[in-house]
């Protein structure tokens, strides 16, 4: 890496590029040049156009170069207990493992150590962007945000709101405490530039009526985005029906609180495994992003989300690791999981729901989720220069492969150690 590249987000890289031109269409450009001007991709060219000839070129010839991935749904405090309680379903898993573990984030020394590991692994993984749940604790959440701010990644982090149906001391004392803690957290996070706050009511069972109303007022006044969970598990859905008898379905409960997308409330709903046709219609009309988390949905026996329908109906959709429901933080892995569970869905549940293709899974893990952050997840002109330079030397091949074949192998085989370089909005992390 030369100094110009390190300190100036204007550069040119040469190599073999793959990116989504659209949801179904992969663009593959061998031996081309990507021009990055102030962190924004100016395009990919066979020859460097005259006006860019003064810009330094770094040669990654022979390397596959991809857009950075987006993890649209993960839980930082759950990183420490991955792979535990995987024989349980959601509500038992929350009570047995998740809530006791999250209670420990009152202790700042514990939080610092655990969040350091999470952040270090995020830096070295393939995601350049992520939407992250912290815990309900203000100080530990700010600590996580400081670490992520320094990491160079671009992220959104939520202090979790939860004032009912969870054990003391994790449960917030009442809705007023939850809202005033949220105000404190937002005030303290104003200095952040790359790690920004996102309102995070955990899910309907954890949030009282006055808390949801207070969060909706806050959302309206601040324009902040929102993330939560929706229709993940059958017992959870039944419970929400009891808690919100006036809503016809789970998503309508969020909608009635004015925390469900629309022009001024960008929203991510994780899972949507058991969404009814009415709920899907509302997700679409409100432009809510679905965070599809196939590994978590398998581990917790939640089910298989009808992703073919979401893709065909043009819903906004990206992929999430959902650590620790999911055990693997890599969105490459989420791509293969999405393809695999869609094949089971097609074979066993609905023969009309054709499996997710490599192109579609790649799109979901890049531009599909990335657009929650703006123009992120493709190399089209004007999009953010989030870049992964891959090293495929661990996957030897006997005959020359097409770029599409090389991409499929990287999706299925690569690990964090196969990422040679990573750039976020033009800034090189390593
Ligand atoms: N629903 C409410 N909280 C959680 C959580 O921590 N993980 C998952 N997978 N679902 C949830
Ligand atoms: Fe989750």
TrEMBL record:
Known cofactor(s): Zn(2+)
Domain of life of the source: Bacteria
Protein name as catalogued: Amidohydrolase family protein
Keyword Nucleotidyltransferase: no
Keywords from the named record: Hydrolase, Metal-binding, Zinc
Residue intervals of the Amidohydrolase-related domain: 65-428
Keyword Isomerase: no
């Amino acid at each position: 890496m030369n100094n110009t590249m390190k300190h100036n987000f204007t550069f040119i890289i040469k190599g073999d590029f793959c990116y989504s031109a659209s949801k179904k269409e992969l663009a593959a450009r061998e031996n081309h040049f990507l021009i990055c001007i102030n962190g924004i991709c100016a395009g990919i060219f066979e020859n460097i156009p005259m006006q860019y000839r003064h810009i330094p070129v770094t040669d990654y010839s022979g390397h596959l170069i991809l857009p950075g991935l987006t993890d649209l749904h993960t839980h930082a405090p759950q990183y420490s207990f991955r792979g535990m309680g995987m024989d349980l379903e959601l509500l038992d898993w929350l009570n047995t493992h998740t809530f006791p573990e999250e209670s420990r984030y009152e202790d700042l020394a514990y939080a610092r150590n655990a969040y350091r590991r999470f952040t270090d692994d995020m830096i070295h993984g393939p995601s350049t962007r992520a939407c992250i749940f912290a815990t309900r604790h203000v100080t530990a959440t700010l600590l996580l945000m400081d670490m992520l701010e320094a990491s160079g990644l671009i992220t959104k982090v939520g202090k979790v709101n939860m004032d009912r149906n969870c054990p003391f001391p994790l449960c917030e004392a009442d809705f007023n405490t939850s809202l005033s803690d949220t105000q404190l957290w937002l005030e303290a996070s104003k200095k952040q530039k790359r790690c920004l706050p996102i309102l995070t009511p955990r899910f309907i069972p954890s949030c009282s009526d006055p808390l949801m109303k207070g969060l909706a007022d806050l959302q309206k006044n601040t324009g902040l985005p929102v993330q939560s969970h929706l229709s993940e598990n059958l017992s959870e859905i039944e419970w929400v029906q009891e808690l919100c008898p006036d809503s016809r379905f789970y998503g309508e409960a969020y909608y009635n609180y004015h925390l469900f997308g629309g022009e001024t409330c960008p929203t991510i709903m994780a899972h949507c495994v058991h969404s009814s046709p009415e709920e899907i219609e509302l997700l679409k009309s409100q432009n809510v992003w679905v965070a599809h988390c196939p590994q978590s949905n398998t581990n917790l026996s939640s089910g298989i989300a009808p992703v073919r329908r979401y893709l065909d109906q043009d819903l906004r959709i990206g992929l999430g690791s959902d650590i620790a429901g999911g055990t693997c933080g890599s969105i490459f892995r989420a791509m293969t999981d999405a393809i695999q569970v869609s094949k089971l869905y097609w074979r066993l549940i609905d023969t009309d729901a054709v499996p997710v293709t490599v192109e579609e899974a790649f799109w979901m893990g890049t531009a599909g989720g990335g657009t929650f952050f703006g123009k992120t997840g493709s190399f089209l002109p004007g999009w953010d220069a989030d870049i992964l330079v891959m090293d495929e030397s661990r996957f030897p091949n006997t005959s020359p492969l097409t770029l599409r074949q090389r991409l499929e192998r990287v999706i299925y085989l690569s690990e964090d150690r196969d990422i040679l370089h990573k750039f976020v909005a033009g800034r090189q992390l390593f």
